[in-house]
Design brief:
alpha/beta, globular, 9 strands, seven-stranded mixed sheet, 8 helices, 235 residues, 34% helix
Length: 235
């Protein structure tokens, strides 16, 4: 059963070594992520799943001990998804950021497993996947990585789309309220058009939380660099 969840953004810029001189701009988001991981620790789960968007090569399960690297972003920094033997496959960037957050907050509360989620996954399959995760142990926690639209401003990576702010506002409201139905109702096609990377992960969370009365809290909702970043805790 799902007992807690933390929702965090997954830009590599969250890692100060990657952000370099711009690291201070992400300080509020970073601090909110550190805070929300306390929700997971307080829930005392039997198992923690870290899930986030992944391309074809990174989709599926990643065992405890799997390694990730930020070398592709110009930084010789490696992270490990909990303590364990290295795995043949490398973590996708979203899970590498999640592993970095767990290292920084010294996670040791439960065994960890990663799950790379394909962004094209339908809401029904996301919900099914979430229910399977929730049923895998008596007390399950999720660290859910993903970003909103990258079309919030003219200088954003995806340029400006006038629909982006409203989409992100509804996603942030639903995440902050632990509104399962609203998350499952997020428009898949619109999310694709707005370059939202968190939709499938958020809908997997919604599936895991169906039938469970969890309270939500939104800790952060901003769009530095024109990308929607949200931090929320469910418990």
């Amino acid at each position: 059963m799902l007992v807690a969840a933390a929702v965090c953004p997954c830009p590599p810029l969250l890692v100060p070594e990657v952000a370099g001189g711009a690291a201070a701009e992400m300080d509020p988001a970073r601090a909110a992520c550190y805070d929300v991981l306390g929700v997971l620790a307080a829930a005392r789960p039997d198992r923690l799943y870290v899930l986030g968007p992944a391309d074809q090569a990174g989709r599926g399960s990643h065992p405890q001990g799997a390694r990730g690297s930020f070398a592709g972003f110009g930084v010789a920094l490696e992270v490990s998804l909990g303590k364990g033997d290295p795995a043949p496959r490398r973590l996708p960037p979203s899970l590498a950021v999640g592993a970095w957050l767990l290292e920084r907050t010294e996670w040791d509360g439960a065994p960890v497993e990663g799950l790379g989620v394909g962004e094209p996954l339908s809401r029904d399959r996301c919900a099914d996947q979430g229910r399977e995760l929730a049923a895998s142990a008596d007390r399950v926690a999720l660290l859910v990585m993903g970003d909103g639209s990258n079309c919030r401003t003219l200088k954003a990576p995806g340029y400006f789309d006038e629909r982006a702010a409203a989409f992100d506002a509804e996603a942030a409201r639903a995440l902050g309220a632990a509104d399962v139905d609203a998350l499952l109702a997020l428009d898949e096609e619109l999310a694709y058009e707005l370059n939202v990377s968190g939709r499938s992960s958020w809908q997997t969370l919604a599936g895991a939380a169906q039938g469970i009365d969890l309270a939500g809290r939104l800790l952060y909702d901003e769009a530095p660099y024109g990308v929607g970043y949200m931090v929320a805790g469910w418990s």
